[in-house]
């Protein structure tokens, strides 16, 4: 299967963008399964992957739509897969018509949109999300809260939506866990007999951090528990 992945901040290595890193891992695994995968990214891409098209420069608009459709016809892509968050593409409407143009001009190509965020902080984001939902052949949501929002606002299109949670991208390393524990105890003044709970990742509202805090209130009544929030900068 020929797949075209679309995400502006795609990079060959982790570049402080979680969705870009997720896209990279997804591309690598799809290729490992035998699929032919191409990527549309920004002009800032710095890797040497010959299957990456650098088309974006200032803003994603109708010219980028035309270029992706041209690539879809030229390479006969089976799927054009958009990794979407409003901030990544800007708040203009034109590029959100890509699924419609795929339907109209690219026979045999399906458009899939994965929503990592449904709407942003501007009212136009709701319009943009609606355009993507209406004209995409399939929709993917990445967590339960996002799925609930999708069903609330776009319930009429619920049959085209699937929830596929993002797995961990942490590669286990060869480290001395005892010394790491000792450093944490020293830096935070934690007793060596305490139970340490660790949550990895940015504390976004939809990650259920309040559940961990509520659980901690119960646990500390019975034993010596600590919650450590761990994320990279």
Write up this protein:
By secondary structure, the protein is α/β, with parallel strands linked by helices. It has helices at residues 18-32, 62-75, 86-89, 98-105, 124-135, 144-153, 177-188, 209-219, and strands at 2-6, 36-42, 52-56, 79-84, 110-115, 138-141, 161-163, 195-200, 225-230. Strands 3-2-1-4-5-6-7 form a seven-stranded parallel β-sheet, sandwiched between helices. Strands 8-9 form a two-stranded parallel ribbon. Helix 2 (62-75) runs parallel beside helix 4 (98-105). The longest helix has 15 residues, at 18-32. It is globular and about 65 Å long.
Structure described in brief:
This protein has helices spanning 18-32, 62-75, 86-89, 98-105, 124-135, 144-153, 177-188, 209-219, and strands spanning 2-6, 36-42, 52-56, 79-84, 110-115, 138-141, 161-163, 195-200, 225-230. With 233 residues, it is of the alpha/beta class.
Please bin the fraction of helical residues: 25-40%
Number of continuous helical runs: 8
Low-pLDDT residue spans = none
- Global mean pLDDT: 90
Q: Note the gap between the termini.
A: 37 Å
Structural class comes to alpha/beta
Task: Output the strand order for the largest sheet.
Answer: 3-2-1-4-5-6-7
**Shape, per Cα inertia axes:** globular
Computed over alpha carbons, the radius of gyration is 21 Å
Give the H and E element order.
EHEEHEHHEHEHEHEHE
How many E-type strands? 9
The biggest sheet, with number of strands, parallel, antiparallel or mixed sense and barrel status, is:
7 strands, parallel
The share of residues in extended strands comes to 15-25%
């Amino acid at each position: 299967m020929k797949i075209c992945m679309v995400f502006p901040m795609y990079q060959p290595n982790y570049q402080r963008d979680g969705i870009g890193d997720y896209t990279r891992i997804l591309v690598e695994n799809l290729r490992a399964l035998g699929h032919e995968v191409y990527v549309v990214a920004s002009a800032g891409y710095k890797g040497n992957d010959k299957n990456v098209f650098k088309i974006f420069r200032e803003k994603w608009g109708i010219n980028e739509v035309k270029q992706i459709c041209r690539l879809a016809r030229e390479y006969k892509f089976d799927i054009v897969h958009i990794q979407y968050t409003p901030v990544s593409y800007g708040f203009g409407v034109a590029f959100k018509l890509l699924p419609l143009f795929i339907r109209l001009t690219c026979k045999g190509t399906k458009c899939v949109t994965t929503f990592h965020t449904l709407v942003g902080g501007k009212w136009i984001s709701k319009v943009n999300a609606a355009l993507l939902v209406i004209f995409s052949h399939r929709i993917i949501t990445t967590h339960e809260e996002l799925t609930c929002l999708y069903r609330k606002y776009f319930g009429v299109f619920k049959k085209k939506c699937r929830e596929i949670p993002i797995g961990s991208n942490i590669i286990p390393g060869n480290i001395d866990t005892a010394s790491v524990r000792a450093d944490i105890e020293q830096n935070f003044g934690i007793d060596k007999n305490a139970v340490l709970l660790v949550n990895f990742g940015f504390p976004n509202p939809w990650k259920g951090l309040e559940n961990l805090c509520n659980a901690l209130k119960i646990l500390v009544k019975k034993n010596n528990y600590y919650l450590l929030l761990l994320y990279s900068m």
